[in-house]
Amino acid sequence: MNHLAIIMDGNSRWAEKVGLPRFAGHEEGSKVAKQAIEYAAKNNIKNLSLFAFSTENWQRPEDEVEYLLYLLEKYLDEEAKNLAKNKIKLFVIGRLEKLTHSLQDKINQIHQTAVNDSVMNLYITFSYGGRQEIVDAAKKCLINKLNPEDLTEETFQKFLYAPNMPDIDFVIRTGDRRRISNFLLWHMPYAEIYFSEKYWPEFSQKDLELAINDYQNRIRTFGTRL
């Protein structure tokens, strides 16, 4: 598998189920995300995308949003050097102009100092919406006065948030919701999708392995007939 994407859903509902505040769900979810990153790196998954925070999530209670921003900044502070050491190239993509200036500066610094000989690309989507990404790319095409005759899928992709991101092979969604929630729409034309009833904080490595085994047993035709 070249590109695995995970919609990490169910943090808040897990916290409510076990009688903890919503913040605890996000904290536990961040730990599971770290485990998924480690698993992907050890198992030669070249690209991993994690849906951390959508454009719609800004409408959540202010204290919850602030805590999610805190978790992102905490992760960057604690893990950026470790990721670089392990040759994992980190990209944070989305409408980042809505983040605090200090957080934007940290993200820019990480992007500028990223390793070139990476063994895995890690994409964290934050303040992200799939339709918005496509609209933003279309605006960049207009700003650059691109001729319609020159517009191809390959050219258009150059204006996306992560131009070199490959198509997604497999999407895992936790939290017992069966939708893709506006996640990386351009990049999943033929992605296989797996839905788990488990909330993200309780999604174990064994669950991840079961999902990947399910993917490996599927026959992908990419729209053609066998």
UniProtKB/TrEMBL annotation:
Signal peptide: none annotated. It comes from Candidatus Phycorickettsia trachydisci. One of its GO terms (biological process) is polyprenol biosynthetic process. One of its GO terms (molecular function) is magnesium ion binding. Its cofactor is Mg(2+). Keywords: Magnesium, Metal-binding, Transferase. Substrate binds at residues 10-14, 22, 26, 54-56, 58, 60, 173, 179-181. It is an enzyme of class 2 (transferase). Pfam families: Prenyltransf. Its EC number is 2.5.1.-. This is Isoprenyl transferase. Belongs to the UPP synthase family.
